[in-house]
Design brief:
- This protein has 424 residues and is of the alpha/beta class.
- The chain has 10 helices and 20 strands.
- A hairpin with a 2-residue loop joins strand 10 and strand 11.
Length: 424
């Protein structure tokens, strides 16, 4: 079966909100010329639209997405807004990225009215359950200290007091970060876009063609034409013909419990909300939610969404951490979401062809980073000064074609899973 140009999810997003988006987002119909087309209404796409609209207030800017706003990949993640730069190659880059992420976080907070979406008091930390995980925390602490990023060690006793679980040996507290409902966030960001931006939901891009004087993007019921087009659909840009040699599509998974009973909630959230990031990249992410549930995220699926085996693995991971918590013995619902990985973690970013711009490969660190990369891409397209994106992140390495890329991914993934051990 040929690869699709957009995700077709088997399960509904587990994040919900009663708020209905008021902004018109009708599907695209017919032929419509405009000034700029943005494919993807996630964090990167909306950041591009926001900055383009500010720089070119008379332009007609269109954003298309395959899903209703919030139902796609942007609303399916774990809801961590992270200022800390973990993956930088050296301390100077990490320090610079931390400052840039902080400014992007402030802007997102202002535009989306984040204080109304979540509490600032949630504790976010990295946690280690194994000796290998502890080695990872020690290396991270050295990077954070050398790059002047704030952190604080959490011994095992404090980890237990905060989470109600004795599973973790130690942790590193990461202040100035935030937990939220990503579905509410992306819809809030879409709601406040300037008036010269028009959203078209349920309008997946099926093809991109170069046309005299610009580009045409075809959807099921319409065609947009513009001198500029922006690829902000991350994992699926390669299925439109761009980035095939630099990224792979990955499915990640999350599950939540039913609301915890009052006694359980006191055990798990006695000090308030918290979110735990694993010491190993293939470990499990864990957090609490506003309505008193536990959420666990983990696993990677290559190019397609997994089945019931995913639910079973997530369930076992949760039970290991809370063996005596009755509400942790079953899951209320679970779901998948996509991201794009590059071989070395660097995004494919910039002008790929005349008038064709892309930001592909968030590598699982998507909200603040994606917003920053989107804004800078709009700056580039308008001949404004930009950050040295390639200097900060590098350039993505080449990934071989199939079947070698799948074999390589599966081999590396299996090795990493074995190394992760009980961090999973």
């Amino acid at each position: 079966m040929p690869a699709t140009t957009y995700p077709i999810y088997k399960r509904h997003c587990g994040w919900t909100s009663s708020d209905e988006i008021k902004r018109d987002s009708a599907a695209l119909k017919g032929f419509q010329p405009c000034d700029a087309i943005i494919i993807g209404a996630g964090y990167t796409g909306l950041a591009i639209a926001q900055r383009l609209a500010e720089l070119c207030p008379e332009d007609d800017i269109r954003v298309i997405d395959a899903e209703r706003i919030g139902k796609g990949s942007a609303g399916r993640n774990s809801g961590f807004l992270l200022e800390h730069a973990f993956a930088a190659k050296e301390p100077a880059s990490a320090h610079s990225l931390h400052q840039h992420y902080h400014r992007a976080h402030q802007e997102i907070s202002q535009r989306a009215s984040l204080p109304t979406l979540t509490a600032d008091s949630a504790k976010i930390f990295k946690g280690a359950a194994t000796e290998r995980g502890m080695n990872g925390l020690n290396a991270l602490a050295q990077l954070l200290e050398a790059s002047y990023q704030p952190f604080e060690w959490l011994p095992q006793e404090r980890m237990h007091e905060i989470t109600g679980s004795s599973y973790y040996r130690a942790g590193i507290l990461l202040p100035e970060n935030r937990l939220l409902n990503p579905y509410k966030l992306i819809r809030s960001l879409a709601e406040q876009l300037p008036n010269n931006v028009r959203l078209h939901a349920q309008s997946p891009a099926l093809a991109i063609t170069q046309h005299q004087g610009g580009w045409q993007v075809t959807t099921p019921e319409g065609v947009l034409q513009a001198p500029k087009v922006f690829l902000a659909n991350n994992a699926f840009a390669k299925n439109l013909g761009y980035g095939q040699g630099h990224s792979v599509t990955i499915y990640t998974y999350a599950a939540i419990t039913e609301p915890l009973a009052p006694k359980e909630r006191q055990q798990v959230m006695g000090e308030g909300q918290w979110g735990l990031l694993p010491a190993h990249r293939l470990g499990s992410t864990l957090r609490t939610t506003d309505d008193g549930r536990l959420l666990i995220r983990g696993m990677y699926g290559y190019e397609k969404e997994g089945g019931r085996e995913v639910e079973q693995i997530l369930q076992r991971s949760l039970q290991k951490r809370f063996p005596d918590l009755e509400s942790a013995q079953s899951l209320a619902r679970w779901w998948g979401g996509t991201t794009a990985l590059t071989s070395n973690g660097a995004p494919l970013w910039g002008e790929l062809k005349s008038g064709l711009y892309a930001s592909i490969g968030c590598n699982g660190v998507g909200i603040i980073k994606g917003w920053m990369l989107g804004q800078e891409l709009a700056q580039l397209a308008c001949n404004q000064s930009t950050l040295d994106i390639h200097g900060l992140f590098g350039k993505p390495g080449w990934i071989p074609p199939e079947p070698l890329r799948q074999l390589g991914f599966l081999a590396v993934s299996e090795l990493e899973k074995n190394m992760a051990g009980n961090e999973k």
